[in-house]
Design goal:
Radius of gyration: 19 Å
Shape: globular
Bound molecules: NADP nicotinamide-adenine-dinucleotide phosphate
Number of helices: 12
Strand content: 5-15%
Distance between the termini: 32 Å
Mean pLDDT: 95
Low-confidence stretches: none
Oligomer: single chain
Largest sheet: 7 strands, parallel
CATH architecture: Alpha-Beta Barrel
C-alpha cells in the first residue's frame, strides 16, 4: 500500500485559509515525550511529507520547551512558501520551569508567547496560531480579542483552538473567525462527535484530530510492548499495566480488518477518521505524528482507503470498551 503513493488531495483551511493537504504531520514526538528523538529520521520525514502534499506542520511552544519550534526552523526557512506552520500557546512551562503545567491565556502572556514562537520558528508570521488550552480565569473576549489583534498586526494569519467545548468554539468564532479546532479524535476517543464536530461543521471550521493513532496504540499489538522507560505514555491511564492489555486486545479488531485488506492497522485507523468525517460532514485534517519516512508514507496512503459499512460497524463498539480515562 505504500509503493504507489500519489500526492494527497488538498482542501481549504477553515473558511478563508490556505489550501492544505488532507493529512498534516504532527511534529511533537520529534522533540519530546515519545522516546529518544531521531533528528536524521525526522528531517527526512519532513522533506518527504512536503513532496507528498502534506503541508500542514503541527508544533507548539511547549514541545521540547521550545526545541520543537527551533528544530523546524531550518526546514521552514528552506520551504517557506510551501509550508503552513501551526503552533500553539497556553502552557506556562519553560526551560527554567519545565514542570509548570499551568495554563495562561492572559493577553500579556499571549503577546510574549507569540514573539517567542516567531523567533524560534524564524518566521515573520505564523500561519495558524492555536490556543492550546483554555484558561477559564480569562474572559474569552480578552484572549480571543488579543489573538485577533495579532492577526491585525500581521503576526498571525489564522486562529485555532485546541480541546475546547462547542460553546467555547461558537463564542470564540463570534469574536474572530476560527479556522481550526484541534482535539483528540480516533477510533478510541470519540467525545467530540456529539457537540464539537457538529458545531465545526456548521461554522466551516476545519477539525484537526490529534493523536489519531491513539498515541501509537492503534497501530497494533507490537507497539505497546516497545515503550522505552522514559516514554511519557507509560504514565497515561490507557497505557497503564492495568488497562494496557484490555486496550491492546481491542486493537485486534483493527488488525483483523487491516490484515484482510493487506494494509496496516495505522492505515485503517486513519481511514476510519476520513470515513467518519465524511459521514459527519466536517472538513478534517488528521495530524498523525511520526519520525519515520516509511511510516509517513504509510499514513499518507491511508487517504485512498475507503472502509465499507460493515468494517465501520465492526469498529463502532471499540471506543466505549476502552479502559482508562483519556488525558
Ligand atoms: N493539541 C493537543 O493538546 C495535542 C496533544 C497531543 C498531540 N498533539 C499533536 O498531534 C500530533 C499527533 O499526536 P501524537 O503524536 O500524540 O499521537 P499519534 O499521531 O496518534 O501517534 C504517534 C505515535 O505513533 C507512532 N506511529 C506513527 N505512524 C505509525 C505507523 N504508521 N506505524 C506504527 N507506528 C506509527 C509514532 O512513532 P514514530 O515517531 O516512532 O513513528 C508515535 O509513537 C502530535 O505530534 C502533536 O503535534 C496535540
Amino acid at each position: 500500500m505504500t509503493s504507489n503513493i500519489n500526492n494527497i488531495q488538498q482542501d481549504q483551511l477553515g473558511q478563508d485559509g490556505p489550501q492544505i493537504g488532507i493529512q498534516g504531520l504532527g511534529c511533537m514526538g520529534m522533540s519530546e515525550f515519545y522516546g529518544e528523538p531521531d533528528e536524521v529520521g525526522s528531517r527526512e520525514t519532513l522533506e518527504r511529507a512536503l513532496e507528498l502534499g502534506v503541508n500542514l506542520f503541527d508544533t507548539a511552544d511547549m514541545y521540547g520547551l521550545g526545541a520543537n519550534e527551533e528544530f523546524l526552523a531550518p526546514f521552514i526557512a528552506a520551504n517557506r512558501g510551501g509550508v503552513v506552520i501551526a503552533t500553539k500557546f497556553g502552557y506556562s512551562r519553560t526551560p527554567e520551569n519545565p514542570d509548570d503545567w499551568s495554563i495562561d491565556n492572559r493577553p500579556e502572556f499571549i503577546r510574549g508567547a507569540v514573539d517567542r514562537s516567531l523567533k524560534r520558528l524564524g518566521v515573520d508570521v505564523i500561519d495558524l496560531y492555536y490556543m492550546h488550552r483554555r484558561d477559564d480565569r480569562v474572559a474569552l473576549e480578552d484572549s480571543i480579542g488579543t489573538m485577533s489583534d495579532l492577526v491585525n498586526e500581521g503576526k498571525v494569519k489564522q486562529l485555532g483552538l485546541s480541546a475546547v467545548s462547542a460553546n467555547e468554539l461558537r463564542a470564540a468564532h463570534a469574536i474572530h473567525p476560527i479556522a481550526a479546532i484541534q482535539s483528540e479524535w480516533s477510533i478510541f476517543t470519540r467525545n467530540i462527535e456529539e457537540e464539537v464536530v457538529p458545531a465545526a461543521s456548521e461554522l466551516g471550521v476545519t477539525v484537526v484530530p490529534y493523536a489519531p493513532l491513539g498515541r501509537g496504540m492503534l497501530t497494533g499489538k507490537a507497539f505497546a510492548k516497545s515503550l522505552a522507560g522514559d516514554d511519557a505514555r507509560r504514565h497515561f491511564p490507557r497505557f497503564s499495566d492495568n488497562n494496557r492489555s484490555t486496550n491492546i486486545a481491542l486493537v485486534a479488531e483493527i488488525e483483523a480488518i487491516a490484515s484482510a485488506r493487506d494494509v496496516t492497522a495505522a492505515q485503517i485507523a486513519l481511514a476510519w477518521l476520513y470515513a467518519q468525517s465524511r459521514k459527519l460532514n466536517v472538513k478534517t485534517v488528521p495530524i498523525p505524528g511520526t519520525r519515520k519516512r516509511s511510516r509517513l508514507e504509510e499514513n499518507v496512503a491511508s487517504t485512498s482507503i475507503s472502509l465499507t459499512a460493515q468494517e465501520m460497524a465492526a469498529l463502532e463498539p471499540l471506543a466505549s470498551a476502552v479502559q482508562g480515562v483519556n488525558v
